[in-house]
Amino acid sequence: MEVGIMSSQQVGKKCVICQENKMKGIHLYTSYICTDCETDLIRTETDDPKYKFFIQQLKKATSPEIYS
Questions:
Q1: Which residues pair with 40 in a beta bridge?
Q2: Angstrom distance (rounded) from CA 56 to CA 66
Q3: pLDDT tens, 26-63?
Q4: Relative orientation angle of helices 35-43 and 49-58, to the nearest 10 degrees
Q5: CB atoms < 10 A from the CB of 15, how many?
Q6: Per-residue buried b or exposed e for 22-54, using 16+ beta carbons within 10 Å of the residue's own CB
Q7: Which phi-psi region, left, alpha or beta, contains residue 50 (left: φ > 0; alpha: ψ -120 to 50)?
Q8: Three-class DSSP category at 68
Q9: What angle do CA 42, 46, 52 make, to 5 degrees?
Q10: Which pLDDT score, from 0 to 100, does residue 61 have?
Q11: 17-26: per-residue pLDDT in tens?
């Protein structure tokens, strides 16, 4: 029997906004938001087109991931 060596590199979680795997962030309902996106979201004005993108991505956080 052969035993493999596990990698010490951590993958992180996939951010609901940028869709990248990041190590640091917050959990919001069933989703994860990385600290980079969280900071960018907080600093973005509501009249900025990027704000609309953030809202669109955050709508994904309201849909449950568990399907029955």
A1: none
A2: 21
A3: 998 888 999 999 999 999 999 999 999 999 998 877 76
A4: 130
A5: 20
A6: beebeeeeebbbbeebbeebeeeeeeeeeeeeb
A7: alpha
A8: coil
A9: 95
A10: 75
A11: 999 999 999 9
Query: Using CA of residue 45, residue 49, residue 54, residue 60, what is the dihedral sign?
Result: positive
Contact predicate 41/25, CB 8 Å: no
Mean pLDDT, residues 10-15: 82
19: left (phi over 0), alpha (psi -120 to 50) or beta: left
Contacts of 30-38 with CB under 8 Å at 24 or more apart are: 30/61, 30/63, 30/64, 30/65, 30/66, 31/60, 31/61, 33/61
- Segment (H or E) for 33: strand 31-34
